[in-house]
Amino acid sequence: MAAKLSLKLSNKSPRQPIQKLPASIELPADATVEDAKQAVARQSGINDFNRVGLFDPETKKILKNRKALVRDEAGVVKAGELVVKDLGPQIAWRTVFVIEYFGPILFHVLVPLLRPYIYSFGPWAYKNEAETPMSKVQWLLFALFNLHFLKREYETIFVHKFSANTMPAFNIFRNSAFYWLLAGLMCSLDIYRPGSSADRNDLGLLDYFGIALFAVCEVCNWIVHQHLASLRKPGGTERGIPNCIGSNLVTSPNYMFEVLAWVGVILISRSPAVVIFIATGTIYMRSWSRGKERALRKEFGDRYKAKRYTMLPGLI
User: What's the pTM value of the predicted model, to 2 decimals?
Assistant: First the structure.
């Protein structure tokens, strides 16, 4: 029979300790980080094991890979200890993304419906739907916004595979604010108002180029997401080296095509609100893509061809 792994347990937060945390725990030799979390939660009386955060006593970093074997965590084995913290109420990553992407869909449906009430006062020239109806370009943008976020919802539910089960429940407010307030509220109020830069019925060459750019890049983004999902087994946490359209140019081609698709929307809408939304999103994506590049270099070494640019060739 394989030897058991006996580890001391200590609270990371003395001011907010886990009251029923046992002094030590015994785990099977092949126990994963997730197994350890479940065991600690069970013995500490914590209903949701996802609330349990396990930390390396030497590096003080959280053990992120839930499928990693505890015996392979050098700092933990050397110290014979796991540092434990209650991370608070948790929410599934998939749920968070579904809620995030629902916001823009909601606003881009409600604002057109409520135009008679929203734009009936102040500097706007709304009279009635017969005299100031939504223009063809505004309806086009209505379709593009909703198609994009419906695609994101589908991918969240049926395509994406998340390495982590949950995140702190409070994060849903921070994460959702970006999509609900910028992509949803701000963009919809600017695009659908009477007299906006999108309030026109004639489409020119720039508009048709924007439509083509949006369509091509949305399809490419879809292809990349399908490929990235194929690199991870269901329920797994493993990382693979991307080898798909755009991956020879940048670390995160999904972000590249995402930004370019929104450039297409900017060309059609000429809306400063859309520019602010995607410029803000680019800041986040730049950070995530650089983190991914560092992780790929660290994990795969010489097997991975390092990239100079992580999301936009020649720029980022």
Answer: 0.91
